[in-house]
Amino acid sequence: MRSPTPAADRPPGRRGHDREIIALAVPAFGALIAEPLFLMADSAIIGHLGTAQLAGLGISAALLTTLVNVFVFLAYATTAAVARRIGSGDLRAAVQQGIDGIWLALLLSVPVVIAAVTLTAPLVHLFGASSTAAPYAITYLRISALGIPAMLSVLAATGVLRGLQDTRTPLLVAVCGFSANLLLNLLLVYGARLGIAGSALGTVIAQWGMAAAYLAVVVKGARRTHASLRPDLPGIRACATAGTPLLVRTLSLRAVLLIATGVAARLGNTAMASHQIAMSLWSFLAFALDAIAIAGQAIIGRYLGADDAEGARAATRRMVEWGACGGAVLGALLLLTRPLYLPLFTSDPTVQHQLGPVLLIAALSQPVCGAVFVLDGVLMGAGDGPYLAWAMLGTLAVYAPVAMSVGSGSLSALWIAIDLCMVVRLLFLTARARTGAWLVTGAVRA
Hints:
This protein is mainly alpha-helical.
């Protein structure tokens, strides 16, 4: 755990911001894509077992991701808070704040695991899973629930390191975790012939390995800065309070994705399998673009902690440019490389045919997605959680009736609704970014 460089010592100007962004975003990109790579590896391996298994994975993966990612504030709020402390020059307080976030993650994981295990079947059937896909979805979700404490701990520990301007350690852990996950899944699914249960078990083992690695790094940093490893109730309560608006924002975002999964499931196994592949690819691109947003959280938090509002504004402008251009490049790659990656996911020609227009729709939205993710990260880094919560609720209010009106229509129509959601988010975030209301300076946001 390295001591980060204060904002005041960073080189100014466009090139200086570019160096900052690259130094944080490139390693963050590798770490961020670990989660979608987990899901893509599972999709590729399970897809060759059959369409029903892949459809079951799609439903259970959406539910599991929701159970975990509603608590993504453990990473986001921690990153912003720790970065502000770094900007003000208080390394010990920064590490201590991160440790409080990890304890909060462990406490939250208990009820989440209980809910996941006891409500598995009702949740799967709520999403309209077919009689052939439901058993596979239930099996995958129940086993995967055992990895939830590790997943939440990873979120919080990652937030600590990002706030400390260290995105290289998460990259190393992510690469090792993905490699272990892929190897374990191949051995358990095909070698041990455990099917979809083997895929879930392999991912659980990999998640716990990643959690152990993160915690070892944080403990080492705590000892070096003399921060306490004991749970501090006021500190844990402060982390929970700061994260509440982001929880509302994330729940609204997850509702958007769950509505899409529910609509796709009711279109049949072929549509659900196609949607699962498309969503896996979309998530991969989203996490890739989110690397710049992660840099934004750390950079903006540090600038504001150092009382440099103008530096924060200039960095924001540059990162939005990076996000939009990066989205355009990734969208083009998504279309041009279809012949290479589609056979990896499924050999069903009906699924491959249905994916054609869906992937075109997804590709066209990537520049918008890039700008959205960057502005989202900037406002998180500024601690502007309440606005993000209201903006996402407004977006959901527009998107939900449009998506649910698809009914018995096509999967392409559903993905047009998803694109509409991103456009509405961009309008909300751009309106906020143009004001100065989010530029609140100081070691702690008042």
